[in-house]
Amino acid sequence: MAYLLWFITAAWATVIFYFSTLTGSNVPSVLPDYIPHFMEYAILAGLLWFTVRATKKQLPPSLTGLWAICLTTIYAASDEWHQSFVPGRNMDVKDWAVDTLAAIAVAAVIGYVIARRSRK
Predict the structure, then answer these.
(1) In 23-44, which positions are buried (b, 16+ CB within 10 angstroms) versus exposed (e)?
(2) Could you give the CA distance from residue 99 to residue 81 in angstroms, rounded to a whole number?
(3) What pLDDT is attached to residue 28?
(4) What is the rounded distance in angstroms from the CA atom of residue 65 to the CA atom of residue 52?
(5) Domain limits of the chain?
(6) Residue in 60, 43, 55 with CA at minimum distance from that of residue 106
(7) Using one digit for the tens of pLDDT, what is the confidence trace for 70-104?
(8) How far apart are CA 39 and CA 61, in angstroms?
């Protein structure tokens, strides 16, 4: 199961990478920039949470969430750096901050749900 989750997570990271390779004029802009960023990285953080959990079952949920946040944040930083080489795109710390906030939000929600379930 862990291998399948790693594959799905890597596939999603590839989708994010693909959108980062689009030149500035080819980026779809129906929504404000921060909304797609938040959604992309919220999904990545959720996938990473479940992937890390499947890989390291002995980790407590809080450390699983921390791993998901750290891995998402590192990938987001590398993605912003990658965009600095794409014509019409640039590296933006605000985008990275939104990506990181998405990871924190997802880890908090998953942690909250798990804590509520364990109390029942």
Answers:
(1) eeeeeeeeeeeeebbbebbbbb
(2) 14
(3) 65
(4) 9
(5) 2-21+31-119
(6) 43
(7) 999 999 999 999 999 998 888 999 999 999 999 99
(8) 22
Measure Cα distances from 83 to 37, 45, 48, 89, 97 in Å: 13, 20, 22, 6, 15
CA–CA distance, 78 with 75 (Å, rounded to integer): 5
* Separation CA 51–CA 67 (nearest Å): 10
Neighbours of 20 (CB within 10 A): 18
Residue 113: which residues within 8 A CB-CB, separation 6 or more? none
What CA–CA distances, in Å, run from 61 to 29, 52, 58, 67, 86? Answer: 36, 10, 9, 10, 37
Buried b (16+ CB within 10 A) or exposed e, 54-69: eeeeeeebeebbebbb
Tokens for 8, please give them. 């799905």
Tokens 């965009």 -> residue: 83
Q: Enter the tokens of residue 113.
A: 């749900």
